[in-house]
Structure formats: C-alpha cells, structure tokens
C-alpha cells in the first residue's frame, strides 16, 4: 500500500504520536528504543534535541524493517522540513501553521501534523494541505473544546497535544480526536532513576488506555 496512507493509518490505529523532547541525544535514543519496545509505532524527535537529524537517521536505519514511523517535530521552516525528510523522517510536525513545511512534506509525501488553535487557523491549516491538526497546548482548553470545534468542523482531524495522560485520553478520543500527541508521561518515566523499563511500561499503559477507550 502507498506508504503515506499506511503511515496515516498507523497514527489512527495506534492513536499515539510520541513526542521525544530531550536535551540529551543518548537519552532521546534510549527513550525511543524503550517506547518502541512498549509498542509505540509513531514518534517524532523534536528539532530542539541536540543532534536531532542524526537521531532520526539512526532510528530510521534501526527500525526500517519494523515499520516504525520516525518523524521530526518543532519544524519551523521549509529548510528544516527538507533536512528532516532527507534524514528519513516520514512525519513532520509543527507547532504553528507553516505552509513551507506542508509544501515540502507534500512534495515527498510525508505526513504532516500542523499546529492550529482557532477555527480560522484550523480551516487555514486544512486549506494549506496539512493531513492532521495539532491542537496545542491542548490542556489549556480540554476535550470540550474539541467537541465544540468539531460541531462546525467535523472534517477536522484533531490531534491534541500537551497534558494528555492514560487517565484522560478516553475523554479526548470520545470528544472526536483521531489520535493524541504524548510527551512527558512516557518520555520522562525514567528521568528519576534511569530505569528505561519504566518508559516501556508507560508506553504499554498508554496504548492499553487508548485501546480501552475505543
Ligand atoms: C511537547 O511539545 O513537548 C508536547 O506539548 C508534550 O506535551 P506533554 O509532555 O504534556 O505530553
């Protein structure tokens, strides 16, 4: 099947896009490995991680046979979008509407999740050709905002990000979200003691919560 379609389906099926944001390259790689061991299939390395492009290349090579979607996050311009795609990223994520990123992604058929908050921004994001809408920071509005927004905009494929946990993920999915963006709940699970099995366990717990909510 067409790879982009498969990747979109993977996001919808697993329901989680893992956001790895760290100030340490080695930690980012360990988190990615541990989360993948816990069942995560789609992840983004934010461009703020030192050596982000190298991490993306490493993960793409390591997991090419395992059908893991490796993406790049916090893309702010077209140049960074191109560099990420050349490094092997199949998913590009931006916190804001960034038409250059969307154009570049569409040229190479990478999936895009583009930041939007208001109804105007969401419609502009869809018109710009983005695949999915990143509602950020989601915790500041809550699932009721998604429910309200998808009344006039039922076609908006919303991925809330910021403050989503296994305890509240069912509310976001029930409100009509196609998937959720998850960072600290999984990525920071080993911060206190360096035990990355806790990252694996947090990923498993999150995936179970998504499955139970559907
Ligand atoms: C990010 O961009 O790092 C996300 O907002 C993560 O949010 P979370 O850590 O609350 O899941």
UniProtKB/TrEMBL annotation:
Pathway as given in its UniProt record: Carbohydrate acid metabolism
Annotated keywords: Carbohydrate metabolism, Lyase
GO molecular function: (4S)-4-hydroxy-2-oxoglutarate aldolase activity; 2-dehydro-3-deoxy-phosphogluconate aldolase activity
EC number: 4.1.2.14, 4.1.3.42
Any coiled-coil regions, as ranges: none
One Pfam entry name: Aldolase
InterPro entries: Aldlse_KDPG_KHG, Aldolase_TIM, KDPG/KHG_AS_2
Enzyme class: lyase
SUPFAM superfamilies documented for this protein: Aldolase
Subunit record text: Homotrimer.
Family, similarity comment: Belongs to the KHG/KDPG aldolase family.
Protein name in UniProt: 2-dehydro-3-deoxyphosphogluconate aldolase/(4S)-4-hydroxy-2-oxoglutarate aldolase
Organism, as annotated: Brevibacillus fulvus
């Amino acid at each position: 099947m067409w790879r982009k379609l498969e990747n979109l389906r993977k996001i919808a099926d697993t329901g989680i896009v893992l956001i790895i944001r760290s100030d340490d390259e080695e930690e980012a790689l360990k988190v990615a490995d541990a989360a993948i061991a816990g069942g995560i299939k789609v992840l983004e390395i934010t461009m703020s991680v030192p050596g982000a492009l190298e991490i993306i290349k490493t993960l793409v090579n390591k997991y090419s046979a395992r059908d893991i979607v490796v993406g790049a996050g916090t893309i702010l311009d077209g140049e960074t979008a191109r560099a990420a795609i050349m490094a092997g990223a199949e998913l590009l994520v931006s916190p804001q509407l960034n038409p250059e990123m969307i154009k570049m992604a569409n040229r190479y058929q990478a999936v895009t999740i583009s930041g939007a908050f208001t109804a105007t921004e969401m419609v502009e994001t869809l018109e710009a050709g983005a695949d999915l809408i990143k509602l950020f920071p989601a915790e500041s509005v809550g699932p009721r905002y998604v429910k309200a927004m998808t009344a006039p905009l039922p076609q908006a494929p919303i991925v809330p990000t910021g403050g989503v946990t296994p305890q509240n993920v069912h509310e976001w999915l029930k409100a009509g979200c196609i998937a959720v963006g998850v960072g600290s709940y999984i990525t920071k699970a080993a911060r206190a003691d360096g035990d990355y099995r806790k990252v694996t366990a947090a990923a498993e717990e999150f995936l179970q919560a998504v499955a139970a909510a559907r």
